[in-house]
TrEMBL record:
Source taxonomy: Bacteria, Bacillati, Actinomycetota, Actinomycetes, Kitasatosporales
Any Pfam family: Hydrolase
Keywords: Hydrolase
GO MF term (any one): hydrolase activity
Organism: Streptomyces bauhiniae
The protein's name: HAD family hydrolase
Length: 236
């Protein structure tokens, strides 16, 4: 293996809880909510799937179907889809929905998994190229910079910048091309078998981790180092 491609959300970093997301936004905007109303709103936002990187929507309203389908292909669609889901929940002020969306893009909303820096640093030491391949509608590079991870990344291949998303092999091919590596010498690490498993069609090997809260997944990335060390990967 000469390169490793990583998914972002649920693989290297985890978004904050819906309640934390709402509380931080309320604090930043100086908005007050009583505890029972806050807890109820957070639960409703969770069901609505309004937090990008969080739970999937229980259902997508018909009027949001178009934006939802293209959320990872265009920044405007991503914002429209998620603020639209958020607006299914009544909040004290309408502008809170855009403030919530803005909050989720901040580095403070994301926590690297405990072993993320260790794994990326060792890959850099070994001279193995690292790429980030994400279905996303916004620029995640500031998150990596703020958490001190950018120095380990050689390429960012984001769906909204390429107009194609995983599992389409073209996104993985773009990452391999940018890194100057062959797919058969590349490992893709992700948490979504349908999306990240698409790399197998290109000839990449694939390894999966579970999308869990950061505190509940302390060392799931460490096996990646053993896989590379042994140079034998399990079949997809």
């Amino acid at each position: 293996m000469t390169a490793v491609l990583f998914d972002f959300s649920g693989t290297l970093c985890r978004i904050e809880s819906t309640e934390s997301w709402l509380r931080a936004t309320l604090a930043a905007t100086g908005t007050r909510m009583e505890e029972p109303q806050l807890s109820a709103a957070a639960a409703a936002l969770e069901v609505a799937g309004a937090l990008p990187g969080g739970a999937e929507p229980a259902s997508v309203p018909e009027e949001l179907a178009g934006a939802w389908a293209e959320r990872d292909l265009h920044a405007a669609s991503h914002r429209a889809a998620y603020t639209g889901l958020s607006r299914q929940v009544r909040l004290p002020a309408d502008d809170l929905h855009d403030a919530l969306y803005d909050r989720h893009m901040t580095p403070a909303a994301w926590t690297p998994y405990p072993d993320t820096a260790q794994v990326l640093a060792e890959l850099r030491q070994r001279g193995i190229a690292v790429g980030i391949v994400s279905n996303i509608g916004w620029d995640l590079r500031p998150v990596f910079r703020k958490h001190g991870l950018d120095k380990y990344v050689d390429a960012y291949v984001l769906s909204y910048e390429h107009g194609v998303r995983k599992p389409d092999p073209r996104l993985f091919a773009a990452a391999c091309a940018e890194l100057g590596v062959e797919p058969e010498h590349t490992l893709m690490v992700g948490d979504n078998r349908a999306a990240d498993g698409g790399a197998a069609a290109l000839g990449c090997r694939v390894h999966f981790v579970d999308h869990l809260p950061a505190a509940e997944r302390p060392d799931a990335l460490l096996p990646v180092l053993d896989l590379l060390r042994n140079a034998e990967l399990p079949p997809v």
